[in-house]
Amino acid sequence: MLSQKPKTPAGDARLSELIRLKKLEHPETGFWDQFDRELRNRQLTALVQTRSWRERVGATVLIFLRKSAVFTATASVLALGLFTAHKAGLFPGIITDSKEPLIETPVAHGGEPLVETPIFVVENTAVSPSEVVADASPDYLGAPSYEVHRITKQSVPIGYRIMAEPKQFRARQPTTEQQSLGAKIIRTNNHF
Amino acid sequence: MSFTKAISKSLVSSPERHKEADEDLAIVRKVQNGDVDAFDALILKYRERVYSVIYNLTSNREEASDLTQETFIKAFQSINRFKGKSSFFTWLYRVALNTSLTYLRKNKLRRFFSFEKMVDEDHTEGFIENMAADSDSDKAALLSELQEKLNDAFQKLSVKHRTVITLFEIDGLSHKEIAEIVGASIGTVRSRLHYAKQFLQGELKDYLH
Q1: pLDDT of residue A58 exceeding 60
Q2: Are A61 and A100 in the same domain?
Q3: Does A126 touch chain B (CB under 8 A)?
């Protein structure tokens, strides 16, 4: 339609005249009387119309539900996304129920860790002697009560989160004073 | 209408509009202060213009009547929110347009026409007579045919373009006033007007020579 480009000044003026013929369209006689009456009634209705408390509560609840529906939907999508990401292992530092084996700490033959700044984690599984760096003394209650591995941040087991680095380790402390290790253990097995 | 005519039209109308705006504002303040009956003066002043705009948007007289009433009810109910930043008529036209657009959006699938009677007036005498003579047809029949073609062409335009051409050509508002009402820039209004005219020239080409 536009590609025809029929527009000329004369045609434009004639078009304006033609369009203004629409001004000739008028309501019939008596239309405005009826219009005024109807409008007056609607105006009065709008003025005196008061809603009962049930209607007001209903309207408020409806507004609340409409607004909360958007929030709930957003929160659900977000939660689903986080759950999916969590299950996919995108957050390795967070405790999961994963049954994957623990990552062993890389330890050199001389007993020194391969990574220079060791941090602390408590492990309870049976380990080979070469991996044990510190050990509870056997003379305390007759048996080792726990074992400590030196690991680095790069090799934190999936099931553990390191909360702090140890300040001091004392092997002969009673088990009730485990916190003196300087680290907060957030997950251990039964014999701790 | 030529560009020069359009410019002079907008300039000439400005002082009158300012005076009107001041008078309207005085009435609005009365209504806002509790004189509910004062609103009748605004209804009486603007009902025909508002009806005309809505009728030309809908091409349905029953819908236009209902929507015009709804416009005044809405304006009355929210008159306290009118702060006088724009003129009352601009504000009222905005209410009318929003009411109409909401209605058209909701009912776009079940639309039908219902025309007002086209009453011939003196100032179109020459134009219609010449057209009737050119086409060898009866004047009343030609008017009826033109009405149908015009409304049909109008309804083929998008609502945005229909609004702009109605406000400019039929209601006689300036580009600036239309821009304020539709919430667009003057450039956008001119562009929509240009498009709408080109479209209508194509649709009504049989009557434009």
Answers
A1: yes
A2: no
A3: no
